[in-house]
Amino acid sequence: MRVAIVQPSYIPWRGFFDMIRSVDLLLFFDDVQYTRRDWRNRNRIKTAAGPRWLTIPVHRHAREEIIRNIAICYEPDWRAEHLNLLCVWYGKTPFYERYTSRFADILATRPESLCELDIALTRWLMEELGIATAVERTSRLPVTGAKTDRLLALLGRVGATDYLSGPAAKDYIDPDAFRRAGVGLCYKRYDYAAYPQPWGDFLDFMSVLDLLFNTGPDAPSYLRNLIGDERVVPARSPAFVR
């Protein structure tokens, strides 16, 4: 079984969903330290002036607080601002009406925690993209250890034979530990075809909402990586291919 472990993020870019569709099980890493000015509470949309951030304000918290304990601040009402900006910059795109109502409905539920909102939106976006990967949260799989040891403990709990990691994790993952544990290790690489966009030259790394508003039901075809992922440690079973 191939597994990915990712931190919950706000309306992530398409590479996030390519990773999800490439595995059998996604674990949301919700019990690690929250990092400020990161993807947990913000993402970017394309405007005529270039990328613009949509940011969710959160309540003050200890520096060491974990992601699942971060509370959303609803005053002032950032939800109206986000919806208005999407209308201004995507209101004339071919599929804006198809997706904006459901997005607004999820925001209207006013979940207390950032984690709950991020996961609810990700599950909805998975549905829209035709991704049926199973999902679980690491906080429901308590294990001990740090860095590579903790990753391997989590992977052992779910019976993983292969781990798909983001490339940034190369700085702390120990491939030899994966070899000793008999678990495959592969790093995701990102290279995708451009898709139709308004406002000048194509910009990648926007929120996946940009992809959906512009391409609608064709969006899944733009999730396919043009290059292979980087295999570091062979998997015990044949590599998972979707």
TrEMBL record:
InterPro entries: WbqC (IPR014985)
Protein name, per record: WbqC family protein
Lineage, uppermost ranks: Bacteria, Pseudomonadati, Pseudomonadota, Alphaproteobacteria, Rhodospirillales
